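User: I'm new to structure prediction. If I give you an amino acid sequence, what do you actually give back? Let's try with this one:
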Amino acid sequence: MPIVSLRDVTKSYPSPTEKGEVVNAIDNVSLDIEQGEVFGIIGYSGAGKSTLVRLINALEPVTRGTVEVDGTDITGLGERDLRTMRLEIGMIFQQFNLFNSKSVAKNIAYPLVIAGMPRAERARRVAELLDFVGLSDKGRSYPDQLSGGQKQRVGIARALATNPRILLADEATSALDPETTHEVLGLLDRVNRELGITIVVITHEMDVIRSIASRVAVMEQGRIIEKGGVFDVFSNPQHPASRRFVSTVVKGIPEPYEVTTLRSRHDGRIVTFSFRDGDRSQSDVFVELARANVEFELVYGGINDIRGRAFGHLTLALRGDNAAIDGALRTIGATIDVVEAA
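Assistant: Good question. You get back a string of structure tokens that encode the predicted 3D arrangement of the chain. For your 342 residues, that looks like this:
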């Protein structure tokens, strides 16, 4: 059974401009998130990502549909039951949301105070969490004495304080530099692997999804327009919005204007070969071209790796006898996608 399940969920708000009209921030969304996975939700600003998260932890009520968390329909729960349910869901934020007037240790302890945990037990739990996130020496420091990455580690420790089963990360790396982002994503991966916590990552950065998630949903205008395994969405995106996201981290088939530039710099026929895990390898293609006495030069593209599975597009400039090139392309095209630029 999924640990989070949304069925036909819509969240509407009054339109700010049209009297009596409504805006659907979430529009008829159905989604299952499996226990123990890292699930990515990606979309541009205004796509509805953050609203969806607020429905999962019931900070916003749904307009229509149902949201189940760990088998319980939370859409009809009273506030007391919702508070109990929220102990099962940790949350980390883009801007950290730490109390600047409290020490690191007290920030982490805050949800434990709210939950009524005894002082001695709180102290043990805070020490354990500081060690887990690599900040054992920072318990008495204050947030303004920390780097951005350290602040987010405190945020993660605080989110883990009540031993949640689900962790919601809303743009948790957007305020960080690339190196710190890599460190924080590594910590989240460790949270998932070692603690078995289900993580929902909300982001507009496809590189974050590639680094940590196993499945992804792409959102646009409040709807899920594509979902599936990260490898499948990256290697073969079906929706134009998905293709735009993938293009930010994966070079695909060159656009016509790029082909014009390539032709100005390289002689020969411009041909793109597309590879997916399990297809004929790059070396097989190169061997086939060499066997046909076709000269080739890599001019665009690259091969990517997602958790040990490779895919990508290589665009080559091919030079030689046209009949030989045609024959080699027919042979290669029997096993992989081959596109020659017009």
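You can read the tokens as a compact description of the fold. Here is one thing that stands out. The two ends are 50 Å apart (CA to CA).
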